[in-house]
Design goal:
With 364 residues, this protein is mainly alpha-helical.
């Protein structure tokens, strides 16, 4: 257990300290290493939060290089490639859209971490404490990612090089926070006798954090575990959507991706169903199978109907043939007075006392 705690603690400590040194500031005091406390026998030990960048950091070229190396070694720091609708469907928590400031979250997490280290593993309130740790770490990751895209106002005077270093530092913080969130969720799920209120959704949100960290294999495994454990639960629809989105980037698993997305599209959760349908439509469009195109039989029927309608329309619009004027005979005039049975098409073909009715000259 001691070795496992150190494995979790060291990369986070190193990443945060290197980032702060790159910014030219002193790191905040660290909570005691869990491996050196009574929590060594507790597999639920969670690493402490990384300190945020301090104001007025004097960034040098050497510091920039160091920060770049730190961020690069931290792994994937950004969320997975989900659009806004997919993010809203996968994570409806308010902390995703409106996270608190990173500095406030770090202070709160340091207090929670100290409290967790002093709480026995069998304490009844420890599962709720682990859940708070996990949720705060997720919120810290969101806050750090936002700061990486738009540095806080207190860094407004920073030049382009300093902004680049700040961006890398915040992304490193986000990556570190996601690692800690996964550890906290894992510790919570491993706690025996944890109340349902504490663990509800924890397995799904751990899968989501794996996906956001860019760990597709573990995200897939965690999502499948959610479906295996509660295939009809409210979290199952989101797990199917997550599974479909994660596997969409792997050609060898495109069939499994489509199957998961189609199942999510039938969900009663409107946000999940809408996001799944939108991704399926984009996928079909990329394969030149546009959604909404009628089937071959329907197309043939439509074409036949259109052809018939066109023919009927053409027939109804053909101008009537003009009558041919009678040609005067060249020889001696003979009586051409028609009888009452003479066929006709117009009155002039009948004699003066007859009219053409129903195609026959009728004497009036």
């Amino acid at each position: 257990m001691r070795a496992r705690s150190r494995v979790l603690f060291c990369p986070i400590a190193v990443a945060a300290v290197v980032a702060l040194v790159a910014l030219g500031c002193e790191p905040l005091p660290w909570p005691e290493d869990p491996s050196s406390t009574d929590a060594t026998s507790d597999p639920s030990a969670v690493p402490p939060p990384p300190p945020p960048p301090s104001d007025g950091a004097d960034v040098t070229a050497a510091g920039a290089a160091g920060s770049a190396g730190s961020a690069g070694s931290a792994g994937s720091a950004g969320s997975a490639a989900f659009d806004d609708d997919e993010q809203a469907a996968l994570d409806p928590r308010a902390s995703r859209e409106r996270p608190r400031a990173a500095s406030l979250l770090v202070v709160e997490l340091q207090g929670l971490q100290s409290l967790a280290a002093a709480t026995p593993a069998t304490a009844p309130d420890r599962p709720q404490l682990l859940r708070r740790l996990a949720e705060d770490y997720v919120e810290l990751a969101h806050a750090a990612e936002r700061s990486a895209e738009r540095p806080p106002e207190r860094f407004a005077a920073a030049d382009a090089q300093q902004r680049e270093v700040l961006s890398r530092t915040f992304r490193s913080m986000a990556s570190t926070a996601r690692t800690a969130a996964i550890a906290a969720y894992t510790a919570l799920l491993a706690t025996r006798g944890a109340p349902q209120g504490a663990i509800d959704g924890a397995a799904y949100y751990r899968a989501l954090e794996y996906a956001r960290a860019g760990d597709v294999p573990d995200a897939e495994k965690a999502a499948l575990n959610v479906l295996a454990g509660s295939p009809d639960a409210a979290w199952a629809a989101r797990a199917r959507l997550l599974l479909g989105l994660e596997l969409a980037g792997e050609p060898s698993k495109s069939a499994a991706s489509d199957e998961a997305l189609e199942a999510a599209a039938r969900s009663s959760d409107t946000a999940v169903a809408r996001a799944a349908r939108a991704r399926l439509n984009r996928r079909r469009a990329s394969l030149d199978v546009m959604p909404g195109v009628p089937s071959t039989a329907s197309s043939a029927s439509s074409a036949s109907s259109a052809s018939s309608a066109s023919s009927a329309s053409s027939a109804s619009t053909v101008a009537p043939v003009a009558p041919v004027a009678p040609v005067a005979p060249s020889g001696p005039r003979e009586s051409t007075k028609p009888t009452s049975a003479t066929a006709c098409t117009m009155d002039m073909e009948c004699d003066g006392s007859s009219v053409c009715r129903g195609g026959t000259c009728v004497t009036m």
